[in-house]
Records
---
Amino acid sequence: GQQLNQSPQSMFIQEGEDVSMNCTSSSIFNTWLWYKQEPGEGPVLLIALYKAGELTSNGRLTAQFGITRKDSFLNISASIPSDVGIYFCAGFPNAGGTSYGKLTFGQGTILTVHP
Amino acid sequence: DTEVTQTPKHLVMGMTNKKSLKCEQHMGHRAMYWYKQKAKKPPELMFVYSYEKLSINESVPSRFSPECPNSSLLNLHLHALQPEDSALYLCASSQDIQFEAFFGQGTRLTVV
């Protein structure tokens, strides 16, 4: 099946620092999504990307859909303690074939923010 | 409103029990999903329903049986589960396949 390689696996940063994480795939994705998940809760959608090259912001968060359609990144500026959680990239593979409709997740980035 | 509601929030069941997980959305979404998630791991896709029809079954054991009674509801029927099936079960919905998916808060299932 489709694989999404997300990095880094974990980050320990100081409050106020910027954060960057990315996701890559060996195959083309039509849609890239970024989620944040806190303990005991479901993933919360942060940003959705639909076009190659698209750059979208949501407050201190910025994400981009790579022009090759095989990667995406998420940046968080001026981190605060409540940014703590697990961040997942996810995507829908290119239409056609047995992977159509399979919303696939990366392995996640565990973010820890020290005050 | 982007709410997906899952019930119950917690469930403990024996290996011989039969139980059901429920998921509801009123956003008019036509795609609904079941995922299984273990601690510190990404969600793993189990089933996808599109326009109330099962479109994807990720080789899930038959002790898990999905059902989509109507466009707003998705159930997951559980029977003869094993302790290793203990996990957070997540439901999600999207306008259609390939659109952003919204998740419920999950059901924490413990099989004893």
---
Amino acid sequence: KAGVTQTPRYLIKTRGQQVTLSCSPISGHRSVSWYQQTPGQGLQFLFEYFSETQRNKGNFPGRFSGRQFSNSRSEMNVSTLELGDSALYLCASSTGTTLQETQYFGPGTRLLVL
Amino acid sequence: AQSVTQLGSHVSVSEGALVLLRCNYSSSVPPYLFWYVQYPNQGLQLLLKYTSAATLVKGINGFEAEFKKSETSFHLTKPSAHMSDAAEYFCAVSDGTQGGSEKLVFGKGTKLTVNP
């Protein structure tokens, strides 16, 4: 089974621009979660989608948004980029049915905001 | 809300020595606990997870962890370190609603260095 894939792997943007990141989950997985990883804040939960519905959201400003398509692929969008948005963005997929399910992570998209 | 504390942001051991990475959790309900490993420029890989079936959990690459409710701990151990174990290790607790949303709360991570 193919793992979680994320595109692009690297991205350079300038302040004020917007960016869209993509995540394709493992086949059969209906839950996709997004996390931001920075040296200062560590790994922080952004949001989780299940069957095209956002089920949970972390403490991030409204500039961070996401969506999920009928094939479970997910995108996250960050508008009006700030320098502090530079981070590794990880997505994870699971069956989404119980809390003990393993979340499988993709390799991440490294975003640099200049 | 659940939380996780990892004691020691950096741990250094010699090759062949015992590896002990500490994790304490705070949870108002029986927790689901996970250890993930991250190699440079990669995503997270699951090492093992506790789901209340057994307090001693064995994972991949010779790692294991013991759930101790009285100490609210879930420390990760490996009897003999290998150079390839050098990586960053994250303890996480599942914080969501059963049958509902999924969310992992992570500790700050522990960077493991293995010296030859």
---
Amino acid sequence: DTGVSQNPRHKITKRGQNVTFRCDPISEHNRLYWYRQTLGQGPEFLTYFQNEAQLEKSRLLSDRFSAERPKGSFSTLEIQRTEQGDSAMYLCASSLQGGAFFGQGTRLTVV
Amino acid sequence: AQKVTQAQTEISVVEKEDVTLDCVYETRDTTYYLFWYKQPPSGELVFLIRRNSFDEQNEISGRYSWNFQKSTSSFNFTITASQVVDSAVYFCALGSWGKLQFGAGTQVVVTP
């Protein structure tokens, strides 16, 4: 499979727990992006990496959120002390040139 | 600040009818890209097209066509002879590379 892969597809967690999502981009793509999408809305940009460097973070990315891309390949997004407002679809995308290609997302439900 | 407006929340059509989705954008950048994505019920965002701000040539790809008009800051999308499989949410987006500002989306419902 040569597309963007995200794991897990679904995650249910209790409020206050930490969660981590993984994204494997298309192999030759050097740029990787994280987005959040809530019901009925378009995706909102969170952060992006060029290779291993995190070049931009949105105001939406609170201190409880951290993203890494240690070797410039896969990336992880961690949310600490989850809140019910964190419930959303978390989308990862990668690009080389041109349009970004998205994974199927991780749907997070905080109960 | 960049902004993308998709005024149509939902469009319902009967199969074989044409569907046109409106997109209006705001940006101060002189160079930018416009995109359309499709999000079927499965949830994955499917890339449909990218247009750069210097290329106003309209394009047709199969049953899809796009009308980019810089003078009115619009980038509309038409599905000709719609099919049930076209049922999805369609997003217009503005930006560069993968850092995009998305509109709220237009739900397209195609009934047999």
